[in-house]
Amino acid sequence: MGVNWAVQPLDDEMKSYLDETGIDYPNNPSRLPTGREIKEVVAALSGFNVEISDNGVGDFWQAQIVSKRDPEEYALLNIEKYSGDDQEQELWFEKGSEDVIISILKKLSKMSGPLVLIPDTGDEPTVISTAT
């Protein structure tokens, strides 16, 4: 059994939740990354084999990202309904290595601002930014 990871922007609703749970976060603007930003970050990953499944706008998009050194270091980035290169994308990770996922989100947060990584295990979320 693996962990599925939701990714959310650091919006007012998320800030309220983090305040309630006592998790610190930066006070920076935040949004979900665009399709173009996701594609740029994934294409620039070094040390990984990347396979993209792109079914076009309105359909499922996926990047399978596997370390060339260790196949246990991987991430499976999913977008249920790809809305276009210039649109923000609701993304999530299906299983994968937390370190690899965090590394990808750090790169995305340079463009989108802080992102919140939420495991489906009930564990506390992690705020990912260029400072983490």
Please tell me what the overall shape is: globular
Distance between the termini: 27 Å
In round numbers, the mean pLDDT is 95
Number of helices: 3
The percentage helix is 25-40%
| Biggest sheet record | 7 strands, antiparallel
Per CATH, the architecture is 2-Layer Sandwich
What would you call the structural class? alpha+beta
Number of domains: 1
CATH topology: TATA-Binding Protein
Low-confidence stretches: none
Beta-strand segment tally: 7
Radius of gyration: 14 Å
- Within the largest sheet, what's the order of strands? 2-3-4-5-1-6-7
CATH class membership? Alpha Beta
Note the run of SSEs as H and E: EHHEEEEHEE
Strand percent estimate = 25-35%
Could you characterize the architecture of this molecule?
Strands 2-3-4-5-1-6-7 form a 7-stranded antiparallel sheet. It is of the alpha+beta class and about 130 residues long. The mean pLDDT is about 95. Helix 2 crosses helix 3. The protein has helices spanning about 10-20, 35-45, 100-110; strands at about 5-10, 50-55, 60-65, 75-80, 90-95, 115-120, 125-130. The protein has a single domain (about 5-130), classed as TATA-Binding Protein.
